[in-house]
Amino acid sequence: MNAREVVLGRVRRALADVPREEDPEREPLERGYLDSHQPADAVGLLAENLADYRALVHRSTPEELPGLVARLLAERGAASVVVPAGLPPEWLAEVPREVRRVPDEAADTARRLDGVDSVVTGCAVAIAETGTVVLDAGPDQGRRRITLVPDHHVCVVVVPDQVVDSVPQGLRRLDPARPLTWISGPSATSDIELDRVEGVHGPRRLDVVLLEE
């Protein structure tokens, strides 16, 4: 008896008491497990896990946000920034005029976006347990490409409203028909020698601003 026969035999034994007419697609499945471990401080856990993924985490009030965004762009020496159509204009109010605003346009190409230094967006939801920020191409986030090509991404998360404990809770807030981008830290990969390389298929630096309303 080979391994395949062993596995199939176990499957048959496990299904021995299932009626032949039963359709698994139509049978209700009880899901009694918890969808969250209910962390005492979901925002704090999100910040901790984002930092563990090497994202740079900042806390801000609405009054402080324009100055913080301007400082983060200046630290990267950004001469240009992509601006989604629905981004609140006050977020960029203190960014110097000489920093070129690049609108998010359908005709954008990867080559054109590669010449842009930074992008500033909002988010759809942030997941505390995994340190993940999810974008769904909403008005303040723009098309997926604008957050994948520029080397620097500033993402603003409204807390606590946009923070959930777990992935199941996050999924309930998202529309699966929308283009979803799940971000856990700056883009990175490792080769067989475990040498970490950042910026391979996304921004090399991710600044996450936790905006406390």
Architecture overview:
22% of the residues lie in helices and 24% in strands. The protein contains five helices and twelve strands. It has one domain: Rossmann fold (3-Layer(aba) Sandwich). The strands form three sheets. The protein has a six-stranded parallel sheet, with helices on both faces. The protein has a four-stranded mixed sheet with strand order 8-5-6-9. The protein has 213 residues and is α/β, with parallel strands linked by helices. The protein is elongated, with a radius of gyration of 22 Å. Strand 10 and strand 11 (196-198) form a beta hairpin. It comes from Streptomyces zhaozhouensis. Pfam families: LUD_dom. Residues 47-211 form the LUD domain. InterPro entries: FTHF_cligase-like_sf (IPR024185), LUD_dom (IPR003741), NagB/RpiA_transferase-like (IPR037171). This is L-lactate dehydrogenase complex protein LldG.
